[in-house]
Predict the structure.
Amino acid sequence: MPRSPLPRRAPRRLFVRVVRYGAAADEVIPKPHVVRDFLDGFDRVGRLVAHGPLVDPAGDFLLFRATDRAEAARLLRRDPMRELPGSDYQLLGWSPGRAGVGVVIDPPPARGSGRITLVQRVPVVVRDQERAIAWYRDVLGLSVVAHDPDTHYVELALGPGAVALSLIAPRPEWGEPEYSETLARLGISTGIVFQTDSVDALALRLEHAHARITRGVEQQPWGERTIRFADPDGNEFLAFDRRPATARPGDAPTPRTESEDADGSMDGTGELTEMADGLRGRDRSMPRRRAKS
């Protein structure tokens, strides 16, 4: 029996379509549903990467995938932004050199192949959802991206498209064994790892929030610095950064680079230390947390 071919992989080359509106563009800009229908077609075939308005100057931006420039131009034949009077319309090829942390611009897996396409959410068990929402929002800086009070479903994340934490409060009406099994996952070491731009600043933030730091800032042999902490329900997390370790007496001086601050600190680390010392000096009542050995 002949095997059916696997779905084709999405093309890897990226192209940018830029429209800069003319003076009278407000009168001829396509209706939102027309643009949405066009973009939905791009998305269905795995070509859409990003779309949104330009602000200064006013216009429209589309980032998409195609195999080559000829195909990119062909895909744009039905673009509702194509014939706007007085507007500047450009198609540009783009070759990204580097993406930021958490930004994914690689083509998705072939559709219909059964491959994993997204890590969407990770459950964290809490006692009180509303209290937990406030803590994760105010202390860790996460935002609520989904909340249904009727079903008690809530997700928090760093932003759209990022992996979310799903806060689950066990309810007896679930019945057994679901209720007991979920309750047993309360207050555990979650295995969830966050990346931060500074574990020092995060430690200070946690101290001010009177959060429990279960293991203080440590320099790891592989180059990362880590901190372990727990939410009000005892769920433990790890966070890390990749800043260089603080020099100790007798250490050879580290050669300066162009990215260092004028005072010799890297990315403001010296300013951060001064800020932390100043805050502690003004607030002697702020508790100091000892790391567990």
User: Anything to note?
Assistant: The mean pLDDT is 79. The chain has three domains: 13-94, 117-186, 187-245+265-293.
